[in-house]
Amino acid sequence: MNERTVPTVPPAPIAGAMRRVVKKGYGLADLRADLLAGLVVGVVALPLSMALAIAVGAPPQHGLYTAIVGGLVIAPLGGSKFQVSGPTAAFVVILSPILHEHGLSGLLTAGLMAGIVLVSLGVLRLGNLIRYVPYPVTTGFTAGIAVVIATLQLRDALGLQIATMPEAWHEKLIALWVARGTFSPFEAGIAALTILILAGLSDRSRYVPAPLVAIVTATLAGVALSRFSGIEVATIGSRFAPPGGGEVIPFGLPTPSLPWGDDFSFGLVRELFPSAFAIAMLGAIESLLSAVVSDAATGTRHDPDSELVAQGVGNIVAPFFGGIAATGALARTATNIRAGARSPVAAVTHSVVILLSTLALGPVVAWIPMASLAGLLLVVAWNMSERHNFGGLLRVAPRSDVTVLLTCFLLTILFDMTVAVTVGFLLAAVLFMRRMSEISDAKFVPVLDATEEEGGERHLPDGVGLYEINGPLFFGAAQKAMDRLHGAPGLPHRVLVLHLGRVPVIDATGFAALENMCRYLVHHGVQVVLAGPLPRPRAVFDRADLPRAYPGVHVAPSLDAALELAEGLAKRTEGKRRRDRRTPTHPPTR
């Protein structure tokens, strides 16, 4: 077997960036850089993980469990060297309704199901398909998520007294307005202090994370208000203290247990599947988008299939330890790169830092003001709002893309992410069909351009028509092309050449339309010549064998060969017609 015929075996989807790093060589200098970067990212992720769990409606420790387990499992298996995974703001809009309707066990089960979907996507090597998600869809639901997150934080940021926030977005706005009389200037001041520190230190310090400074300062301010002024502000401890007493943040990781508890049923799986699928799709999009940004910043290249498998495995493992859905986090990944990370060891270190902080700082965490976490998430919402991209699309994008953008945006706000993602993909598919039909063209060609030697024009042989199709012969385009042929005033010709040489690809619907048209023409006594080169996949034509299925259909490898064949068929057909006219007909005898 020579070099050209040796089959190549694709790499296994669970390759892992860590394996590539070790293969290239990993020294003490790399380890020191990773440990320092992991320390910085861990400090950033600690308050953010708690804040995101609280935003979903779960106790803060579940966000910590997600960051710990997700980071320890995903980073060594992942396809990106610098990816840091954990809970993210994008999931808040999906997870909050699940928790409200199915409780914590339903939330953990949905995350587990999403992990299975992600592993399936990676094993089937569908990682590259995520890049085809239309930009207006991702921008629309990302901006909608930002609006919903910001709305959810207004209660704690302003110190409003609302027992239970309604589920619908417009009802949340009404509840906030009704509770305006309970506004607390002290809690609003703590939220404002957090936002100002985050804004002032966001890009100025490499090794002193702005969230750490902001949360510590706000916590000290809250303690001072309580000790010296007698003013109580809501804290993690006051909000999430166990009814019977005990630690707000339990010591260490919980004992592994079944996510669904004693309530597993196929009915529950059926109810949770749409939400789990939305979690998986959003997790895949956000993880791979974060990996692409990481590649652009570092000059590396990630493996999308390995990344999806790793994200899936992490989401399968995390629910057994109380972790909610995890994905690649763009902000934490960017912090990891800026802090000098060199391998996935940095992401693993970030998880260890959060674990050690959970063990050592559990009682201290109880003093963090809820208003400070709300301020942190307001900044997160502002950063993820896509305001510049959103406004740019509104100004310059085609009207159809603007429709998709606004539809996904409004559905995310008014309903939920499951509806927004589903409708967004359907709208994108409809627009794709429409655009394919617009770029594909079909027409009768009365004359042909001659060669340079011949000059002038080449007229078609007598009795021969030429119908040319340009562009992909997909669902919508195929029907349009065949409809034009069906209603053409020049039919019937004795022979019709269908020129497919400018059709790059054809799908099942396009082939069905072509086959129906061949059947129609042959039934009306018209010989059909399909002029190649035939579109891909060529195997469709080989299996269908149209000349055998429909006598009167012929295939030629090129347009010139098709015209030559058509001229001969036209002459034979005309000769047969003349002979038939000369043959006398006798009335039937009685």
Structure in words:
This protein is α/β, with parallel strands linked by helices and 590 residues long. It folds into two domains: 29-231 and 261-428, no CATH class; 442-575, STAS domain (Transcription Regulator spoIIAA, 2-Layer Sandwich). It has helices at residues 17-24, 28-56, 61-77, 92-123, 135-158, 169-178, 185-201, 210-229, 236-240, 266-298, 304-317, 330-338, 345-360, 362-365, 370-383, 387-396, 399-414, 417-439, 475-486, 508-523, 538-544, 546-549, 559-582; strands spanning 85-86, 327-328, 441-444, 447-449, 457-459, 464-470, 495-502, 527-531, 553-556. It has a five-stranded mixed β-sheet with strand order 3-6-7-8-9, sandwiched between helices. A hairpin with a 7-residue loop joins strand 4 and strand 5. Helix 7 (185-201) packs antiparallel against helix 8 (210-229). The protein starts with 16 loop residues before the first helix and ends in an 8-residue tail after the last helix. The model is unreliable at 1-14 and 451-455 (pLDDT under 50).
Spell out the key features of this protein.
590 residues; alpha/beta; Transcription Regulator spoIIAA; 5-stranded mixed beta sheet; two-stranded antiparallel ribbon; 23 helices; 9 strands; disordered N terminus
List the helices and strands and how they pair.
Blueprint: H1 17-24, H2 28-56, H3 61-77, E1 85-86, H4 92-123, H5 135-158, H6 169-178, H7 185-201, H8 210-229, H9 236-240, H10 266-298, H11 304-317, E2 327-328, H12 330-338, H13 345-360, H14 362-365, H15 370-383, H16 387-396, H17 399-414, H18 417-439, E3 441-444, E4 447-449, E5 457-459, E6 464-470, H19 475-486, E7 495-502, H20 508-523, E8 527-531, H21 538-544, H22 546-549, E9 553-556, H23 559-582
Parallel strand pairs: 6-7, 7-8, 8-9
Antiparallel strand pairs: 1-2, 3-6, 4-5
Helix pairs in contact: 2-3, 2-4, 2-8, 2-12, 2-13, 2-15, 3-11, 3-13, 4-10, 4-11, 5-6, 5-15, 5-16, 5-17, 7-8, 7-15, 10-11, 10-12, 10-18, 17-18, 18-19, 19-20
